[in-house]
């Protein structure tokens, strides 16, 4: 399975469709759920997470997730329900997407800082859950440079993942599975889909986006490398929920998610070819696009 690079004509066409007409388009690659704003999306996502754990607990089966360290607003809703309703997370397994590394490919200190995704999750997720309900530490699976195959081995042992809760980058990254751009080798979609946990050097556009969003475009604050789970783990899932509610920054990638065939140019497009249930949850302003309002004929 392989597609060529997307053409600008394709992208312009997809971006020019009025948002009111998107759900009626033929051959959408994912389901599309549009809510009025980010708060509404994140509240619904947090409730979906809690409902899935409750359902599996009642069935006496484990819940297996892939979670990002961003977005995180949905975790507040989830944690509130866990503590209030006494929802046990003792049978929840979490595969964390990625972790930053320094320029030499080594982990940074675990702390409540931007550079530590594990620290971020401790602060906004694990650290807010009552101890008697919390996910056991051995079930919080982080990609590690000293045991790089562990996450893939555990995913296989557990029989795959239930849900990938996926934040998406503006150029289609999922975790740090970015578009491979090394001119010395080319990867097909099938090869990339089988990708395992690995150390990566971040693409320049991702570093620019992260630095602009958080640090006034101070590029030196962004670690240049990361360790990321590959698509091998994520494509074992029964469903994937794309969580995209950041407005203009993601308007184009949302259109590509909906219409594009699988391509390594936008890795997020690979998921619907392998995961049976994929939904894009987004907001009114994120799914809109300026090309759909562009004046023509003047």
TrEMBL record:
Which molecular-function annotation in GO is an example for this chain? isomerase activity
Does the keyword Isomerase belong to this entry? yes
Provide the alphabetized UniProt keywords.
Answer: Isomerase
**Which InterPro entries does its entry note?**
GlcN6P_deaminase-like, NagB/RpiA_transferase-like
Instruction: Report if keyword Membrane is assigned.
Output: no
Superkingdom field: Bacteria
Q: Which PANTHER family match?
A: GLUCOSAMINE-6-PHOSPHATE DEAMINASE-LIKE PROTEIN BT_0258-RELATED (PTHR42892), GLUCOSAMINE-6-PHOSPHATE ISOMERASE (PTHR42892:SF1)
Q: What is this protein called?
A: Glucosamine-6-phosphate isomerase
Supply the source organism for this entry: Lachnotalea glycerini
Taxonomy of the source species: Bacteria, Bacillati, Bacillota, Clostridia, Lachnospirales
């Amino acid at each position: 399975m392989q597609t060529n690079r997307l053409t600008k004509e394709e992208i312009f066409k997809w971006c020019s469709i009025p948002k009111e007409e998107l759900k009626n388009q033929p051959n959408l690659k994912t389901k599309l759920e549009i809510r009025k704003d980010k708060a509404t999306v994140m509240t619904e996502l947090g409730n979906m997470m809690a409902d899935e754990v409750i359902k599996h607990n009642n069935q006496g089966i484990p819940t297996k997730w892939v979670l990002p360290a961003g977005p995180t607003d949905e975790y507040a809703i989830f944690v509130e329900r866990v503590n209030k309703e006494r929802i046990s997370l003792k049978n929840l397994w979490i595969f964390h997407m990625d972790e930053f590394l320094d320029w030499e490919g080594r982990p940074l200190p675990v702390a409540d800082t931007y550079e530590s995704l594990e620290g971020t999750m401790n602060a906004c997720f694990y650290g807010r859950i009552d101890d008697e309900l919390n996910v056991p530490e051995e079930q919080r699976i982080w990609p590690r440079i000293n045991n790089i195959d562990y996450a893939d081995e555990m995913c296989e042992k557990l029989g795959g993942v239930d849900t990938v809760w996926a934040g998406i980058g503006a150029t289609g990254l999922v975790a740090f599975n970015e578009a491979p751009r090394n001119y010395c080798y080319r990867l097909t979609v099938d090869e990339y889909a089988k990708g395992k946990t690995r150390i990566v050097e971040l693409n320049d556009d991702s570093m620019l986006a992260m630095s602009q969003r958080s640090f006034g475009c101070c590029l030196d604050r962004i670690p240049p490398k990361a360790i990321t789970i590959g698509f091998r783990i994520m494509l074992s899932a029964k469903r994937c929920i794309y969580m995209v509610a950041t407005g203009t920054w993601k308007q184009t990638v949302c259109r590509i998610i909906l219409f594009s065939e699988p391509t390594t140019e936008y890795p997020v497009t690979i998921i619907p070819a392998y995961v049976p249930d994929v939904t894009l949850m987004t907001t009114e302003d994120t799914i809109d696009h300026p090309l759909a309002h562009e004046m023509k004929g003047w």
